[in-house]
Amino acid sequence: MNQKQEGEKYSMPVGKRIYLERQMPDPQIVAGFKGIPASNTADCMERNCAMNPRIKLMSNPDEEMVGPAFTVHTRAGDNLAIYAALRYCQPGDVIVIDDEGDNTRSLIGEVMMSYLRDQKKIAGIVIDGPIRDIDNLQHWKLPIYATGTTPGGPYKEGPGELNVPVACGNVSVNPGDVILGDPDGIICIPRQDAPSILPKAQAFHRQDDAKAIAFSKGEVDLSWVDHSLKDKGFDIIDDVYRP
């Protein structure tokens, strides 16, 4: 990393910055989200935190993906900054990649993924862009989220940045935010809010399980639906539709 010399004025090269430090969440808080569906947690956050469903689960993990965000901002279709992430990410991180909306070039494939899985032991990766080598990656237990696949490869020129705020799946992600993903998709839990959201999500999960059982048994009162329809001005017509 560039060092500022004594007495020397130094301006950071915006677009080519690598931050090695992050404000990290409490590891116990992160672990607490394990086993809670992303949907339950999202419902406790006013339903504002889910990434766009264009980003899909591409692999076959046994459990949810949970970990602190290691953010990567790449130039569209370029993966030099992702190679930098291979050097600096930590075990348990979820790598979150902003590809500036490009969907024409894959950013990563089996070779780089093998290093992240076996050497860096990351918790997962979320890419707002395509990958390749899906014939093998689709069977992996490492959680891999991407927008799709293409054989077209990336450039390696830069610019790019690590551990800066990014936009992924139309959601703002800051370094150290808690990323939670399951087969439904991914949500981002702001680091500073995670301690207060966790007990709400745990309680919601318990209540949601009980609600599913009640609905299955028909032990549910839906009279509130009629009241809501009336309050919102719906007409209930006891007849067939006539053009």
Automatic annotation (TrEMBL):
Coiled coil region boundaries: none
Q: Where is the signal peptide?
A: none
Pfam families attached to this UniProt entry: RraA-like (PF03737)
According to its UniProt record, which reaction does this protein catalyse? 4-hydroxy-4-methyl-2-oxoglutarate = 2 pyruvate; oxaloacetate + H(+) = pyruvate + CO2
Supply the SUPFAM superfamilies for this chain.
RraA-like
Q: What class of enzyme is it?
A: lyase
Reported EC number(s) for this entry are: 4.1.1.112, 4.1.3.17
Q: Which cofactor does it need?
A: a divalent metal cation
Protein family according to the UniProt entry: Belongs to the class II aldolase/RraA-like family.
Function, as annotated, reads: Catalyzes the aldol cleavage of 4-hydroxy-4-methyl-2-oxoglutarate (HMG) into 2 molecules of pyruvate. Also contains a secondary oxaloacetate (OAA) decarboxylase activity due to the common pyruvate enolate transition state formed following C-C bond cleavage in the retro-aldol and decarboxylation reactions.
List the PANTHER family. Answer: 4-HYDROXY-4-METHYL-2-OXOGLUTARATE ALDOLASE 3-RELATED (PTHR33254:SF4)
Q: How does it assemble?
A: Homotrimer.
* UniProt-recorded name of the protein: Putative 4-hydroxy-4-methyl-2-oxoglutarate aldolase
| Provenance organism | Lactobacillus kefiranofaciens
